[in-house]
Amino acid sequence: MNIFENLRLECIAAGMELKDKADALNTIARIAKKCQSFDNVSEEQIAQALEEREKIGSTGFGKGIAIPHCRLKDISKFGVGIISSKEGVDFDALDDEKVHLIVFIIGPDIETNEHIRILSIISRALRIPGMVDEILAQDNPESVYESFLRYLRDYVKTREGKEKQLCHVFVQDEELFKDILQIFAGMETSSVSVIEAKNTREYLARMPLFAGFWSDSHLGFSRIISAVIDKSLINETIRAIESITGRLENRTDIMVTVQNIFYAAGSLEA
Question: How confident is the model at residue 267 (pLDDT cuts 50, 70, 90)?
Answer without folding.
Answer: confident
